[in-house]
Amino acid sequence: MDQEFKPTEDDKPIETLTPDEVLPPSAEFTPEVVPEIFVPVVPSDEVIQSIEEEDIIPVVKQVVVTPKPKSVKKGNGKTIFVILLIILLVAAGVAAYWWRDKTATESVNSQADTLNAKIKTLEIELAEAKIVNPVDCDISCSPTAPSTTVIESIKASITSGNTAALEGYMAASVKVVLTASEGPGVAPAEAVSSISDFISAATKPWDFALSASLLGQYATSSYGPYFPSIAVVGASANNKVISFNFDCYGKISKVFMVSDKSILQ
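Predicted structure:
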């Protein structure tokens, strides 16, 4: 069964006050200043111990080192250095090869010059010996005919007029005889000049296939010594005759020239 509710004094309704009743208009509001009370804080033993440990233990800072990126300029400088080094090595190799080739060439040229000088000296000595002891004299040297190729070249030099080629087939000293006028031995160049003058007045063609009977007639004439069996003899269309004699080395040693073949009869 429900109990009956009876109000008490505490349950009396609260009287509602107007603003004027709470704070009269004439009254000024002055805030009450509450004095600040300082309460000292005493740190505990754990806090004091922690502070002491911080003072004793050094603080280790962790430093993170970040690797720096390689400089582009350094990379380029290293590349340029390598290229320059390669260029220097190549240049050194080329210079070494050039120097070796130059030295070898100079050595070969020097040896060739020395040999040529010796040959010239020997040719001069031989020419001097021939002047003292002519081929006509009885010396230990038998005239030798040159090769067929040389003989054909001698013939071609006369028929073509290219007498300069004869110099290579001549001895160091050559006797040039024009009919009865015989002089001392001359240098090959001078002998070639005399031959050129002689054939300039000759009429082509030249005939180097003279008959054996005609050559025998020449050999029995007063100029017979200039027509040995190994001589190369030719006659022009206007009856000029030229005869090439050879020494024991197969070199042209004498050139006999006749202005008219009638002199040989």
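Summary: The radius of gyration is 67 Å.
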